[in-house]
Amino acid sequence: MMMNHLNDDTMQDYLDGNISAREREEVRQHLEECEQCRDLLASYQDVFAALEREPDFELPKNFTRKVIRQTHKRAIGSLQFGLLQIFFILAAAIAVINVVLTYVQVDTFTATAKTTADAFKDLAQQLGVPMQSALTKIHFNGFFIVILLVGFVGLYLLDRFLLQPRFKPVADQ
Length: 173
Fold this sequence. Notes:
Blueprint: H1 8-16, H2 21-33, H3 35-53, H4 63-77, H5 79-103, H6 107-127, H7 129-138, H8 142-166
Helix pairs in contact: 2-3, 6-7, 6-8
């Protein structure tokens, strides 16, 4: 059988006994013919023997907990980066709203927003005079109410899908 030199994976599989009987025989025959591979085998056997002589390394019982805690602290440290992401998302949303307001006819949208604002005023009247008087003093524009609602929904979604998964506490093991 004509064979090139054995590679590291084959040599380690041979030493570990992770190859078939046929492959094992081919490797053994190659080792009989190739001095370079025999030297490599001897080196691997020395390494394996040295590893066997080494005492087992035992980790402290709380090692896992410490690693998880340190990893969690690093994640919390990246909160500033998360807040920066939120800032850029909000800035992009404001830019999109400005572009839409500039290039899109908003008469229909404004009419719908005014109807929504009127509905909120009617709700305020049903809830009581103090709230109704506060709303009439402020003179809510329906458009701003819709923007406010969209903003709150956006903040909820950011919190739900960006911040909560990122900073979910890790259970101690």
